[in-house]
Amino acid sequence: MTKGVNLLRQWIFGNFLRRLRKSPKQGALDLVNRTVHSTDFPGEYEGYDDAWDQQKFEKDFRIDMIKMSHDELEFDMVGIDAAIANAFRRILLAEVPTMAIEKVFIYNNTSIIQDEVLAHRLGLIPIKADPRLFEFRSEDDTEGTAEDTIEFQLKVKCTKNTHAKDTTDPDDLYKDHKVTTKHLKWIPVGSQGEIFKDGDLRPVHDDILIAKLRPGQEIDLRVHCVKGFGKDHAKFSPVATASYRLLPEITLLKPIKGELAKKLKKCFSPGVIEVDGKGSNKTARVANARKDTCSREVLRHDDLKDLVKLSRIRNHFIFSVESTGILPPDILVEEAIKVLMSKCRTFMNELSQAT
Amino acid sequence: MIYTFNLFPQQDKWKLLPAFLKVKGLVKQHIDSFNYFINVEIKSIMKANEKILSDADPNFYMKYLNIYVGMPDVEEGFNITKPISPHECRLRDMTYSAPITVDIEYTRGNQRIVRNNLPIGRMPIMLRSSNCVLNGKSPAEMAKLNECPMDPGGYFITKGSEKVILIQEQLSKNRMIVDTESGRKNVIECSVTSSTHERKSKTYVSTKKEKFYLRHNTFSEDIPVAIAFKAMGIECDQEIVQMIGSEEEVLSSIAPCLEECHRQQVYTQMQALKYIGNKVRPRRMWGGPKKTKIEEAREALHDIVLSHVPVVQWNFKLKAAYLALMVRRVILAQGNKVQADDRDYYGNKRLELAGQLLSLLFEDLFKKFNSELKRIADMTIPKPRAAQFDIVKHMRQDQITNGLVNAISTGNWSIKRFKMDRAGVTQVLSRLSYISALGMMTRISSQFEKTRKVSGPRSLQPSQWGMLCPSDTPEGEACGLVKNLALMTHITTDLDEAPIIRLAFNLGVEDIQFLSGEEMTSPQVYMVFLNGNILGVIRNYQKLVKTIRLMRRAGYINEFVSVCTNHSHKCVYISTDGGRLCRPYIIVKDCHPLVESRHIEELSQGFRSFDDFLKEGLVEYLDVNEENDCMISLYESGITKKTTHLEIEPFTILGVCAGLIPYPHHNQSPRNTYQCAMGKQAMGTIGLNQRNRIDTLLYLLCYPQAPLVKSKTIELINFDKLPAGQNATVAVMSYSGYDIEDALVLNKASLDRGFGRCLVYRKQGVTMKRYANQSFDKVMGPLIDATTNKPVWKHSALDTDGICAAAERIENRQVLVNKWMPTVTATQLQSGMAGQPTQQQSQDYREVPITYKGAEASYVEKVLISSNPEEAFLIKMLLRQTRRPEIGDKFSSRHGQKGVCGLIVPQEDMPFTDLIMNPHGYPSRMTVGKLMELLGSKAGVLDGKFHYGTAFGGDKVEDLSADLIRHGFNYLGKDYVTSGVTGEPLEAYIYFGPIYYQKLKHMVLDKMHARAKGPRAVLTRQPTEGRSRDGGLRLGEMERDCLIGYGASMLLLERLMISSDSFEVDVCGECGLLGYSGWCQYCKSSRHVSTLKMPYACKLLFQELQSMNIAPRLTLKPYNQV
């Protein structure tokens, strides 16, 4: 037990954060193990030492940032157990809090869309607001304070466009017939006006269609955004999805030459297999197994299936985090780590209190 | 030898189908039939009953000159009418009907008067018929009328509810059927159901002791055929034999009949008529001169026996020939020369549609109307009056109106002159989904009894090919009896016979009147029939058939005339009657389909319509009988020298419901049948006007989607525009154990994002009645709590007018309308004498609020305040619930694979799917189509397009796999999946992709039920039964047996008595009878009375027995002495 706890402490407090921030671009492929299942007990697999070794771990563990944009992050996490990698994924999906619309006060809704459906649609709109600046709202609170609530107003009325001529396009015929997120107007609660500037608190995208109106119809409502967890409702999830895959490994068991090499290349995603040489001297080589989508197409071909071995590296996780745009993906990962850290802390406190 | 032609690319033939559906098919048969009735048939009904004479005044007459059915309207106030739209009728609980007006000529005193446009009643109008306001309207105009342009029409609106007259299947009228007698096996008889405007009767020729008899309801006894012939004026035995047939076999069969005739000493027509006259059942005839037996017999033969065979001026020749043929058919069938007819053969069936049924009803009502007028005339004319008798003043509209409206709204079709009394002819149009409404319009109900356990009428008949859907039939008792039309079936209406008769005679048919018996039965000739009547004989029958077909293709005679030869009968049958099923085929000439690619090109460019194909003789309609005379090739590749026709598209053998299934030809057949039933329960969209409707129950999907794998049928019936389902990403794997027995595992995040979210609308209606004593209901404002100055909780949803406000939340037992009703409604107020209504009495009101009942709260969507035709206020409220899927809700794919939600799992524990389906659903069900649908959807999603899964075609799996490979997926559709719980890869690749899932209307919220204590039945004091009455859950006999077997006696006692109807009775230990409050009335003592508990039902039994003079006595002992 102590060893396990030690593991977590060492690892999390020791290296992890530091390594994430300044990792090398891309390292060599690590071919440690190709078994699918992790071992519940060390020593399960013959000839493979999977007993915990702090030094070995510190040496092997590595995080490589591959790709990052404002809402997408791809990074490799190498030399770690699947359970830990999965914990990050799960926390990203369900336990990193964000702000989302939770309460809708409808004053008037004469549109075709039903109140409940409208409220549901509003709820799913990602709200650009740093959740770290807000508190959780207590359940019996209906008013909300500046610390836990963001308020928006949606007040749209559709009118006829009197200038429209000879057209059947609703865009020309009517004004404001599409209610989108750009119509959501931020209303400062309490002292929020002093803390936040205009545009600090807003929907991530301003072109999300909320409802359609026709002349005479109107929507007048106010919404409260509160802080929440993805496990309560998917609208609080900060990621569109967070996932990982294992690094594919392709081994050519025999040299593959000539036409067969060309065929082999076709069986994989572009860039996975390259063919060197010319004429009958053509030889296939694995250029970048990482790019393979693992369609297992080679195995369909009788002449190729015995020449290739397909496998994955069991402790090389290729993470992909797609943010909804509320927070940049790297911050999300950082938050996820913090969540796991605080969980460990709570767990260890509980343990020490129990003993 | 097989010839193939490449002139005509196979892929394009289907384009004929939308063109066909524009003019015929689907629900057009209802509309055609109704149009035929209101435009043509109603005029001939009027002609047949055009004169009303009076017995009182020989000079009086009234004659109908013309009859019209107008456009639907509504009377707004006195004599002011305005056109009405169907949707207004639905909302205001009115009948969508149009006035029937007549032009008449009659006498008033000595004047002859012509009056035009006199209303005699109102005719409910079928939607989209020629007289409907929607006829010929563009989609935009429809939208103005609040009508869905995709709505099929073909139904009626009576008293606000949509009613469909189901298609009725019947054995053909006026056709001979040779079959084994019902009840007696191996006895062959020939029967004909004759049907004319006046009468319907059934005539049999049967065998008894090797002799032939004529059997009919009017005869109290069977008549030997020979005597019947003699009574018809064929007195010579030789002539009789010649008419029946002079082959050796026939001769020997008839001999005993003739012998019997001689034994009865019947030689002349008079003798025969006398013989028959004694057997005629006396008909109750009031009035009229008394008739002799001979006259009676003659009239029976003339009017009643084989009434459809015309007898002109007492010339029985044709009827005798017909009877002879019936005898001949029986003889031939006995000798197994000719096979007996098959009752289930679809060529022997006719379908009755709304038009025919309504015309029967209308003729009955019209006759009643006329006889009523006659009665009034007879009664009024003799009386001396100041004003002259004017019959127009006595024409009352309500009889015809109510007769038609009541028949349609109740479905009870009773027609006196045919002694017909059918129930359930109409049904409420099911608006659960678009498909359920459409499916109802193509439904055919059979007259066959459901309880009978015979397989013949239920099983699929080969002759139903292409006409009826082989998949769409309900399970259970109505299996095979309720059928559905296939996509391209059309049902004919009646056609004029005269031109066909003229044509036939011009083509060398010899009239039977001029022929001797020998010539009729000569082996060289074929007999020619028109609609079951003998027309004559012909030698060169091939020429006749060929010419008629040529004339039809050239458009000289109607396209629905069918002609076919039956070589075993040696007959040519020509049919022009209504109710035949037919469908179009491409004509093939010299191994060459006449429809070529240039025609199809012109069609898609809009230069051509389906009618042009018909007119140019490229395509023709074949009915079931004629189909049997043709060689029809399914594909071009199958065309041989003998081929006469080519199928347009094979998938048209399926109906609308089966047409939704992708790749149905890869599924086990019963699965398709299951889906046909389930497609009707799927939620989604019911029409573009769904939000304007106020239906009793309406299920809608929040975010309906068009299926990723479509079929041609889906496009043709607009299912992609009015879908009922969502494309769910499915992983076929086992998960958690909460997926056994077809249960599904749903992703919580998917539900959060709106998967399977549905809206349930319910109607609440009230009418504000006006009573006989001039008092009326009223609505009161909400009750205000004096302390808070707010409405009390019960009335918190009410507006100031006392009706709930739109967008209010309504909880259980809250009031929707605060209605008050006068306490006295029956007796007249004593206002007459004082001249002023007494104020006090009108104030006696009591509260009758309309309250909301439901476990879950609802929201008021809208409130309609209107008036119905009875001038009463009508308040309708539409209540709405939004429901997200929960455990126990039912879902199904389009392959008869239904399942309930067994578990809802957070997204981080799941693969990236909406739902998980257990793979055990596949092996035993063999729904390969579902596997293919997944591949098709997955490939479609990757390319951003829809794939086709049309029956007997559709995109090939090979191509779909190639698409998957192109996008870097595995060709089998299996993917590598990581467990969300452990974070490790699963041990197997998972079949993974989108499948179209339907949410079915069965939801837990509507079914959940529990009870601790509650209401009890009055008689037995046991808990009530059923959820709607908040009933108890029954511990039945079998459950009781379990407890007995287990020996849990105290539990048994508790369940069956204490928790049910425990009752304390006083029993006298002396006499064993029941006493009361410690006193035995029998012993007049209280000494031995003891109190014990027993079920109330037991006590009830004792008392009931006592009331029947049986004294049940109980023997009591102290418990320690038992």
Radius of gyration of chain B: 36 Å
User: What does the oligomeric state look like here?
Assistant: heterodimer
Overall morphology of chain A = flat
Report the sheet-strand fraction of chain A: 25-35%
The profile of the biggest β sheet of chain B is: 6 strands, mixed
Task: Give average pLDDT of chain A, whole number.
Answer: 84
Residue share in helices of chain B?
25-40%
Chain pair with largest interface: A-B, 40 and 32 residues
Structural domains of chain A: how many: 3
* Shape by Cα distribution of chain B: globular
Which superfamily, in CATH terms, is the homologous superfamily of the largest domain in chain A?
RNA polymerase, RBP11-like subunit
What's the number of helices of chain B?
28
Number of strands of chain B: 52
Number of helices in the DSSP assignment of chain A: 8
CATH fold-level topology of the largest domain in chain A: Gyrase A, domain 2
Keywords (chain A): DNA-directed RNA polymerase, Nucleus, Transcription
GO biological process, one term (chain A): DNA-templated transcription
GO molecular function (chain A): DNA binding; DNA-directed RNA polymerase activity; protein dimerization activity
Pfam family, one (chain A): RNA_pol_A_bac
